[in-house]
Design a protein that fits this description.
This protein has 252 residues and is an alpha/beta fold. The chain folds into 3 domains: 1-30, no CATH class; 31-60 and 235-251, no CATH class; 76-230, Glycogen Phosphorylase B (Rossmann fold, 3-Layer(aba) Sandwich). It contains 10 helices and 8 strands. The chain has helices at residues 8-24, 39-48, 94-104, 120-129, 147-151, 169-176, 187-196, 207-223, 231-237, 240-251, and strands at 33-36, 53-56, 80-85, 109-114, 136-140, 156-159, 180-184, 199-202. The strands form 2 sheets. Strands 5-4-3-6-7-8 form a 6-stranded parallel β-sheet, with helices on both faces. Strand 3 (80-85), helix 3 and strand 4 (109-114) form a beta-alpha-beta unit. Helix 6 (169-176) runs parallel beside helix 7. It is elongated. The two termini are 25 Å apart.
Length: 252
């Protein structure tokens, strides 16, 4: 069988090359290009494999994700409404975040937690122990179909992780839905906050850092219920079509 229309000799030569590269050298098992969803992860990979080609390709939001401008009401009773969406596990930093909120003794903050996971009972006991039942609540699992409706009740999405998350999509989804972002200043979280805008970051375990971020967030919400950002640009940048285009470039 020919692999080239030009001549049988060229076909034979290409077959020999194919056998050498894929049967002898087994180049199909060699990584030559690596993709990562954040510049942060790209830099980490480069530290391990400095000779590899590393390309940043953003994780896409789901293809049928609908953008709807959230028209939130102003600060009712001066309450700053925060929300967390995700798995309830230790690395998400929820325990330390709740403890810091307790230390601040800020009666103007309302924090709701949606999700399930291994530390759910621990969070329940911590909230009870710190007597925060009125301001911090476990809301249980949230159906993804109710995302827009749920987020409409809050001013800012919180991601207090204590480890370097790569590129958490929840920040992107929250930003596109018109929420401010309140996040740890680590890894891909800090990067996404800078990309999305309308974000405030703090150092994990630092009550002073969180207090500064909350004061600035409160002032921003008081001035404008919805952060000023390029929503259409974000949707395009994190869209599924753009993701397919960038992946296609890798193979061509």
């Amino acid at each position: 069988m020919r692999v080239s229309r030009r001549s049988a000799l060229l076909s034979f030569f290409r077959k020999c090359l194919w056998s050498f590269y894929y049967r002898v050298l087994q180049v199909q098992n060699t990584i030559d290009t690596v993709t990562a969803p954040s510049l942060f992860l790209c830099s980490v990979i480069k530290q391990v494999w400095p000779s590899k080609k590393v390309i940043q390709i953003r994780y896409p939001i789901v293809e049928d994700f609908k953008y709807k401008t959230i028209l939130k009401e102003s600060l009712q009773n001066n309450k700053l409404k925060l929300v967390f969406l995700g798995r309830l596990s230790f690395e998400k930093g929820l325990q330390s975040f709740i403890q810091m909120l307790s230390s601040l003794k800020n009666e103007h903050i309302q924090f709701h937690i949606y999700g399930d996971g291994p530390i759910k009972n621990d969070l329940h006991e911590l909230i009870k122990k710190l007597k925060l039942n009125e301001s911090v609540r476990l809301m249980g699992y949230m159906n993804p179909d109710d995302l827009v409706k749920v987020l409409n009740n809050y001013h800012a999405l919180v991601l207090p992780s204590i480890w370097n998350e790569n590129a958490p999509l929840v920040l992107t989804e929250g930003a596109i839905q018109g929420l401010y972002l309140l996040s740890s200043d680590l890894g891909g979280m800090k990067e996404l906050c800078e990309v999305c805008g309308g974000a405030f970051t703090f150092k994990p375990y630092s009550t002073e850092s969180l207090q500064i971020a909350l004061v600035n967030l409160y002032s921003a919400v008081k001035e404008s219920n919805m952060p000023k950002r390029e929503y259409d640009t974000l949707i395009q940048q994190f869209g599924y079509q753009n993701f397919k285009k960038e992946i296609s470039k890798v193979y061509t």
